[in-house]
Structure formats: structure tokens, C-alpha cells
């Protein structure tokens, strides 16, 4: 079997809902938070109180598992650093060519969740492995589009494809590794959330044959890719308002970005649609667990370079 993975460098953003958390005690219990000493707990409480004030003062956000982290801690653990992204943009992805996609009459909406072409939401933890999760999610979706259900190992990419997989890397690194070596399944090489050293398991491996570029500035091409392949697109997003992103509640379409700074994160586009009010949006899959956004997914306005 041959599988084509669509890679795009695309600027986007994310969304969710549950019973709101109002106190630090609720937060600790819900997310099973434990701290090493009273001094650390006091620091985490102060961070939580700042987060709670932000959530109370803004719409479209909620307390998430990140509320006890300072902004700098969150950025260092969960986003791609600016240097990695700058090097990523210099890479010659275009040497692999743009995807050859024939235009077709587009459906009004596509949602790979409804087609069963996405695997369950995963959680990268505090390892900066979003690049690996984005690559694996795209590969798993492509396999599902060919009626093959498989749960692949992000940990293998973290340990074997990259020198420092928890410090961020290029999505290209993961795709190249999968083309050359393939990866084993999650049950063989489970995710640990930290670098463990490369283990080369002599068992069945799942490869991709190639990947290609979808023009991130062409909404129609992105939609054609989703409608034609019925598989997820790997993208890198540029987040301006980091607090709006980490506390995103999934109830609305993100339409504005205060653009306070540059913070990068690898995710997947898994569909598109329009609200009753006529706002076109992308459906974006994240790797921060099901509590973030709408059970791990977000909705970002189309036609804009948001976040």
C-alpha cells in the first residue's frame, strides 16, 4: 500500500467546555495535581489565581491543566521555540513538490471525525513533542482513509528520529523518518513523555511512501486536499495570544488574535465548515488531551492568518 501525507506550514489557532473550575482545590483534584513542598504549592496557587482572573475577564476560555504554570514555563514546555521554527521555514519543503490535487465540487463541510478518519486525542504532556504527534496523527489518518486502523508510536519519533525530541523538532524530521524506517505501534513502543533513548524493535513497521506540500495560503487547495484524501493535514501554527490559546474552551470559533508574540505549535487540520452566521472555519486537532478545546479540537476562522 502507498500512503501520501499532506504537509502544510499553516498559520492557525484552537477551542472546549465542561463544568467550570473556580478554586485551586477544585483544580488540584480535577487534574490530580501534587506538589513537592509548600513553597512550590504556593507558587502554583499564585499562577492559578492569575489564570483564573484571565479566564473571568475574557470569553472563550476556561481553566485548563496549564493554569498552575507561568507563561514562560508553558511556552518552554508546550510550544516550538522560535529558533526551531525559523530553521523550519528555511527548509526546502518545496523540493518535495506541491500536492497534485484535481479540483472537484467541494462539499459544504468536511469533518474527519464523522468519517472515523482520526484516532483518539492524545496528550504530549510536558515534552515538546507536538511535531511528533502532528506527524503520527497525519499518518494514522491516512491509514484510516485506506481502511487500516493503527495506533502508531510517537515515542519512537521522539527517541529515534530526533536528537532532542522533547525540545521540539521539525515535522519534516518525522515524515522523513517514517519514509525511511517506518514506526512501530504504540503498544510496542508506548509514549513516556520524556526521551528514553532509541529502541529498535524488530517487529512490524508502518511506512509512508511520500509527502507533499499543500499551499497554506490557498483555502480552496486546503479544502480540496481534505475532501479528496479524507485524511488529516499536518500544520504548524503561529500563536499570538498564548493565554487565549492555552485556556481555549472550544465553544466558539477563534476569530481574532491579539498577536502579542510569536509562539509556534504543530497540530493537524481535520476539516472545515461554516457557522449559521456565515463564518467559515477550520477544524484543528491538538495534542494536549481531551480537556483542551472541544474534546481536544478547536475551530479557527478561515481566510485569516490567525495565530
Automatic annotation (TrEMBL):
Q: Please report a single Pfam family linked to this protein.
A: Peptidase_C1
Record GO terms (molecular function): cysteine-type peptidase activity
Source organism? Euroglyphus maynei (Mayne's house dust mite)
The record ties this protein, via Gene3D superfamilies, to: Cysteine proteinases
What's the protein name?
Group 1 mite allergen-like protein (Cysteine protease)
Cited InterPro entries? Papain-like_cys_pep_sf (IPR038765), Pept_asp_AS (IPR025661), Pept_cys_AS (IPR000169), Pept_his_AS (IPR025660), Peptidase_C1A (IPR013128), Peptidase_C1A_C (IPR000668), Peptidase_C1A_papain-like (IPR039417), Prot_inhib_I29 (IPR013201)
Family listed? Belongs to the peptidase C1 family.
Keyword vocabulary terms for this entry: Disulfide bond, Hydrolase, Protease, Signal, Thiol protease, Zymogen
Q: An example of a Gene Ontology BP annotation on this entry?
A: proteolysis
Q: Where is the Cathepsin propeptide inhibitor domain?
A: 24-74
Task: Show which residues constitute the signal peptide.
Answer: 1-17
Family matches, as SUPFAM superfamilies: Cysteine proteinases
Peptidase C1A papain C-terminal domain residues are: 106-306
Highest taxon of source: Eukaryota
